[in-house]
Here is the input.
Amino acid sequence: MLDRKKLFLITMLLTILGPAFIIKSSISYVPFVFMVLLLLVSYGYILIIIKSFKICLDNNSSVKEFERLSEDIYSIAIENKSVLVMPRVSFTVYLRSDDGYAVNDYEYDFIIKPKEKIDILLNIKFPHVGRFNVSISKIKFYGFIDLLFLYKSVVWSSEILVKPKLHGIENYEISTANPVFSVDYNVPHKIKGGEFNDAREYIPGDPIKNIHWKLSAHSNSLITKIINTDAVNGISIYMDLPYFSGGNYHYAADVYDCIIESSYAGSLYALDRGYAVNFIFFDGGSPSYSNIKSYDDLSEFVYLFPDGQINSSLELLIGQYSNSHISFDNMIVLTDKISPALADLLADCRMHGKYPHLFLIQPESKTDAFDNYALSRLKKSEIRYSIISDSKEFASALGGMK
Here is the structure.
């Protein structure tokens, strides 16, 4: 599709050429010939100044790592090596997500004098967690006429890993409940007592102390005891990760930042005190979970930056896992949506001895309010909930900030 400037130029040429065809006089073609010569000279001038243009960029090929909201300075040097004036030179530096979503654009427009060198210090801020790319557009060179320009390609980019910003939690009481179901004791977590309830075939990773040696001897295979615990201490973090699309990128990114950073802070708090943690989320369109047994497991999960799913349902996650052995007593639920069905599910979890804490994410870009009826259901069921805008408010609401 032609832009307005090119369309104007073509219209002007046709306007000059039209009367010449009607008059059919050699002199009537003079304006048209003049315009063609002007165009040729202008394009020739652009070709000359392109040859004498030089740009220097940071050539660090390694992936740079920053904490969210950090800044980095990029040095760009442009130089006119000729004795000709460059009437106008423009380019754009892009900050894009790995999926191609636009985060920020930095536009530059210069008139460069003969033998002039211009140094640019570009300060780029990284507002969201994830993997990003800093790149430069084709450089646009204009001639005498602003309607005429040519491009020069520049192959340059810088990969960026933006890590979660950590807000430490001061004191979050990891409560103990008495569940009404048998717990398959196959992950390390603090436990208060317990009695033998059932048995199953050994799975690699099960504690050696829970092997039922007598049954193993009779069955010629290792058998593990299933312990009916007095308590299942740990934190299950339910992550209602948003789905990214072109129209909602910045809102979805704000919600995603809050969920990832809050999950990271809560997990670190539990691991520092010897409690187990797992993440419960949608993966590939299906409910899934990941047991976090070490700091390495936590880093690996967080820095993979799991994707949000278009048809995910937090109600389905809680309904499937909350009253199973997968979910620990303490439930942290992170979402930007609330419904009466979700309130009823959390009330049911509380009746089964769980300690759910719902965090409703309301970033500055959110314009609509939460469902008052659903909030009233939470209050009636005495479900603890907090409305937060970021992970800093999460840490304060959960146990106070360090």
In short: The chain has three domains: 53-163, 195-228, 234-399. Residues 178-194 have pLDDT under 50 and may be disordered. Residues 234-399 form a domain with the Rossmann fold fold (CATH 3.40.50.410). The longest helix spans residues 249-272.
